[in-house]
Amino acid sequence: MKMTGIAFDNTYARDLVGFYVPCQPEPAPDPTLVYFNHELADELALGLDDLEPPALAELFSGNRLPEGATPIAQAYAGHQFGQFSPQLGDGRALLIGEVIDRLNRRRDIAFKGSGKTPFSRRGDGKAAIGPMLREVLIGEAMHALGIPTTRALAVVATGERVYRDRSLPGATLTRIADSHLRVGTFQFFATHGSIEQLTTLAEYTIARHDPELVGAPDRYLNFLQRVAERQAALVAQWMHVGFIHGVMNTDNMSLAGETIDYGPCAFMDAYDPGTVFSSIDDMGRYAYDQQARIARWNLARFAETLLPLLADDEQQAIELATGVIDAFPARYQHHWLEGARAKLGLRGQIDDGERIDTALAQDWLTLLQAKKVDFTLAWRRLADAAAGDEGPLRALFTEHQTLDDWLARWQARCAAEADSPGPRAEHMRRVNPWLIPRNHRVEEALDAATQAGDLAPFEQLLEALRLPFEERPAFARYAEPAPADFTQAFRTFCGT
Length: 496
Prior knowledge:
Blueprint: H1 11-15, E1 20-22, E2 32-36, H2 38-43, H3 53-61, E3 72-74, E4 78-80, E5 83-85, E6 93-100, E7 106-112, H4 129-144, E8 151-163, E9 167-177, H5 183-192, H6 195-209, H7 219-241, E10 243-244, E11 266-267, H8 291-310, H9 314-344, H10 353-371, H11 375-386, H12 391-394, H13 401-415, H14 421-429, H15 439-452, H16 456-465, H17 484-489
Antiparallel strand pairs: 1-3, 2-8, 4-5, 6-7, 7-9, 8-9, 10-11
Helix pairs in contact: 4-15, 4-16, 5-8, 6-8, 7-8, 7-9, 8-9, 9-10, 10-13, 11-14, 15-16
């Protein structure tokens, strides 16, 4: 039985026949709405205002698809921890359709955990409630922090159990994305498809994400440059909030420049550039300080798929692609430095400013690492120091001489600009969050939901994360770093 309400315009299913497999979600025996993002639903102009929770549960479990939905499992490949898998695809996800939101942006609506697909291999295609609620918490936190991200529209408990290392309550997530096109999509069709299919995919992706390039003579090279620029900016933003994605496989690298797939992700407490939390990343391939390097590596894999389109002569195509890949570190550094300047309260330019400001920011991070200081709170309390109150910052350090030396350099650099202390501090508080999704609070919320069906800790944490730059006393416990023994033993898991 179909349900009306959503105005779909499904270009992927319509224009890319042969790039997916039609597939229906498996029915949920007893769906219950656990989470629904009313604000996002309104942004998407879904027209669901009159639906009660039971009807929303039927819709977002896949039991009653809305009229116009065309559920498909997308095909893609990918390098997973450096090893190429020629066929992955949506093993537990379905693209339900696309809508045009209130800002005239095209957005994907997709299920995750909706059952087996032709790409499931030996998996059950299902998901447990904990990882799906993690997607809500981290995705909404990233959105509030101003970082491009996919977002969760709904989570529905399915009423069945899924089996991982133990029996867990099952759930389905509805995810919203600018698209689910990824590096792995191009890898699949570069490996298995024809040059005509690869061209069709490239033209579709350009029209969707870089429409001003449509028909341009050098559009494929410019497209590669645009993707590289989006990734450079995105990873720099991750670094400035201490975010560790945890599984930067090429099938998790969105060509839209969004953060996608919140599996073994986490946020850093005490600053340590080598931080790894993922239980499956034994070699630290996706450690915090490796993320820019891996983004470049992934882009090189993407560039390889585009070689037949860049030039008829293979050597010329390689040279064009190599130029983009080799330029990536400088583009990333540009975005990183711009972010670092904002976090330091610097808005003007001085002679030799790039060298001076880079050294100032790097030395600050070296200081935090040496003193094992919390990354988020150190930046936030630096804003207090900018306002003339150094006490909260000093309280984070057990030894003050090296801090004093650095503060003297920073204050001299600030003095070279016209901003007075009050406006500088206020500007810093708008870019240095007071609150992030602390790992112990996230686990606390997910454990309560999984083990006791108690959603109150999840809902309270979600409310705290919505305004990360405002210091609200009622949410003070969410701003506190995890105990050292928790962080030392903490590991994240992919949730599959």
